[in-house]
């Protein structure tokens, strides 16, 4: 423990510790934990015992590591077999990693998951079963669990060094993704969001997307604009819209024809939609088979696919493809192209790419793209790259030694410029982990801090903490330290790491750290501003003031509440949860993201009528653009 652990009344928090054994430990380990109960400083102690089990390197290993959110997670690791041909045939001093994603409600350490690839144990690859943190995979293998997958792969590299592994190395950026049921859906998410890391994919008995598996058509009917905003908020999870990103990735789909849990319709649909993009998948439908049976992940077609996938390394980049980019911080590169910012969060972005490999010219046609760069990985593979963007006369000769630090930006006249300046990564602009709908708050680097800024709302803070723990096994500190722009810990001595959730009534909200932030709460109103013009146009444009803006004011009323994201330094975020009264705050707090696929925009003002009208009772809903201003496609009902 590097700092004290403060536990609020009735709060549950995970205790994180690291065990370092200089010599081989005994089979039993005992820990004694001392803590003080305030006020009065009463000292108490707790004890627990832990048994060690020694395993051979040929057996699955339970690997623990820190999730980016500062909690302990685990994965089941099976190292590659120590066979001579695996060592001789490894590519680029390493072997790929087969990522096996489990279905909903299963633990990665369960027999069903541990053994589901046993028949493939002789394949020359690392096999990794991430837990996703929880048995429900955190959030259906999306934001929270994606971070867990990456942390697990990084932990394998440390495991290799820690035990003195002398076998084949690991290719941390070459993934063969496979998964069953909810894990099959997770494979589609990896294919569409992390395409440059996926060398092959096999979704088994997986559904196409959440809203296609559990239709949302029984919701209340709101104004069409509200429906549009919610659809856009869910776009990152709508795999059917993003299948163009699968171009160049070998895919084998498998489904049982008699599956009554996830109907075969889902795999048939994805197979058909892939063909419409110009790519295709192999599809095996097992006649008479249901959702799960022993050996479902190691049928003859799948075993052959796993073996064949080893020959797909390194992955081949298609000469022609279209990259579809949702407004999501989970989106990585495709073909070496990484989109940092969209022009508008109200539309997906698209990059149509045609590569002239012979002459080293990449022709790019952009749609709703504001800023992008090339990855170092692609620049290491290419001898020369010239980008011809939109207009063939606008060309940039790429400095292959500075790909990750050179951005291509659309200027205010619709043209393009290149720059290596990094000062755009500031409170003035939205980037990195901040991108996306309200679920972006889950992309925290460190534990959550829940700030109580009003009297009498400790119970709501506690429930928020419990929800984060229940759904994500997430840790959170609760504090009453809520001074303006305060990002210090409870003792005021250390900067707070991790994202912040601020709970408040009335006008007790601290000011935003971002200049010209467009949401303001007074003692009687909540005010939204839309800026009409920019000063200092160009790559470092920022909003000078709220003069000349449209303003919308909503008087405080019983049951009114709001949620909105605000930027912090270093890609961090603050989620403000506000209520005009306790009823409004309780209603707003229920919308703190815990269920994936619900489609919450990052600005919401709720009325009391939302209790019976659902989202049809919203006063406002929308997205923040690249300058942290309310986007033009947002919904704002008539203010005063």
From TrEMBL:
Keywords: Hydrolase, Signal. It holds the Pfam family Peptidase_S9. Residues 175-297 form the Peptidase S9 prolyl oligopeptidase catalytic domain. It comes from the Eukaryota. GO terms for molecular function: hydrolase activity. InterPro entries: AB_hydrolase_fold, Peptidase_S9_cat, Plant_Biomass_Hydrol_Est. This is Alpha/Beta hydrolase protein. It comes from Aspergillus lucknowensis. The lineage of its organism: Eukaryota, Fungi, Dikarya, Ascomycota, Pezizomycotina.
């Amino acid at each position: 423990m590097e700092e004290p652990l403060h536990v609020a009344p009735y709060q549950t928090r995970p205790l994180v510790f690291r065990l370092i054994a200089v010599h081989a430990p005994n089979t039993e380990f005992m820990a004694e934990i001392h803590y003080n109960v305030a006020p009065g400083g009463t000292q108490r102690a707790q004890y627990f015992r832990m048994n060690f089990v020694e395993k051979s390197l040929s057996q699955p290993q339970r690997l623990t590591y820190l999730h980016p959110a500062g909690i302990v997670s685990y994965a089941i690791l099976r190292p590659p077999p120590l066979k001579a041909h695996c060592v001789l045939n490894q590519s680029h001093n390493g072997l790929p990693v087969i990522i096996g994603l489990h279905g909903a409600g299963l633990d990665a350490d369960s027999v069903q998951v541990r053994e589901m690839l046993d028949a493939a144990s002789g394949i020359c690859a690392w096999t990794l079963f991430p837990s996703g943190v929880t048995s429900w995979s955190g959030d259906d293998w999306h934001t929270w669990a994606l971070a867990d997958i990456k942390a697990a792969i990084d932990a394998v590299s440390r495991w290799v060094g820690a035990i003195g592994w002398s076998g084949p190395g690991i290719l941390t950026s070459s993934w063969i993704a496979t998964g069953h049921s909810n894990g099959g859906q997770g494979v589609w998410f990896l294919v569409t969001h992390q395409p440059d890391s996926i060398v092959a994919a096999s979704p088994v008995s997986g559904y196409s997307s959440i809203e296609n598996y559990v239709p949302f058509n029984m919701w209340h009917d709101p104004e069409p604009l509200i429906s549009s905003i919610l659809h856009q908020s869910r776009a990152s999870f709508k795999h059917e819209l993003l299948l163009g990103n699968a171009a160049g990735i070998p895919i084998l789909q498998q489904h049982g024809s008699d599956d009554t849990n996830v109907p075969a319709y889902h795999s048939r649909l994805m197979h058909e939609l892939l063909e419409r993009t110009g790519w295709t998948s192999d599809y095996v439908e097992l006649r008479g088979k249901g959702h799960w049976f022993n050996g479902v992940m190691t049928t003859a077609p799948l075993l052959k696919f796993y073996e064949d996938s080893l020959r797909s390394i390194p992955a081949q980049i298609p000469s022609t493809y279209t990259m579809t980019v949702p407004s999501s911080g989970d989106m990585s590169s495709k073909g070496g192209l990484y989109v940092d910012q969209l022009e508008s969060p109200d539309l997906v972005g698209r990059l149509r790419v045609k590569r002239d490999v012979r002459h080293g010219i990449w022709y790019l046609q952009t749609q709703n793209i504001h800023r992008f760069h090339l990855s170092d990985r692609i620049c290491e593979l290419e001898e020369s790259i010239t980008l011809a963007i939109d207009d063939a006369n606008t060309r940039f000769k790429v400095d292959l030694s500075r790909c990750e630090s050179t951005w291509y930006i659309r200027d205010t006249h619709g043209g393009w410029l290149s720059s290596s300046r990094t000062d755009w990564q500031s409170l003035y602009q939205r980037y990195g982990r901040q991108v996306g709908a309200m679920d972006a708050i889950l992309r925290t680097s460190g534990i959550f801090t829940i700030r109580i800024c009003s009297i009498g709302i400790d119970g709501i803070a506690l429930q928020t903490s419990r929800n984060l723990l229940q759904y994500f096994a997430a840790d959170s500190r609760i504090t009453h330290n809520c001074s303006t722009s305060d990002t210090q810990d409870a003792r005021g001595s250390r900067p707070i790491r991790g994202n912040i959730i601020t709970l408040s009534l009335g006008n007790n909200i601290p000011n935003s750290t971002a200049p010209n932030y467009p949401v303001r709460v007074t003692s009687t109103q909540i005010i939204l501003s839309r800026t009409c013009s920019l000063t200092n146009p160009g790559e470092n444009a920022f909003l000078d003031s709220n003069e000349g803006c449209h303003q919308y004011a909503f008087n405080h009323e019983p049951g009114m509440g709001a949620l909105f994201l605000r930027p912090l330094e270093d890609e961090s975020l603050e989620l403000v949860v506000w209520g005009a009264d306790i009823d409004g705050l309780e209603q707003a707090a229920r919308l703190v993201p815990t269920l994936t696929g619900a489609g919450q925009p990052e600005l919401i003002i709720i009325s009391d009528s939302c209790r019976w009208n659902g989202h049809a009772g919203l006063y406002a809903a929308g997205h923040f653009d690249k300058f942290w201003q309310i986007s033009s496609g947002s919904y704002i009902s008539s203010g005063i």
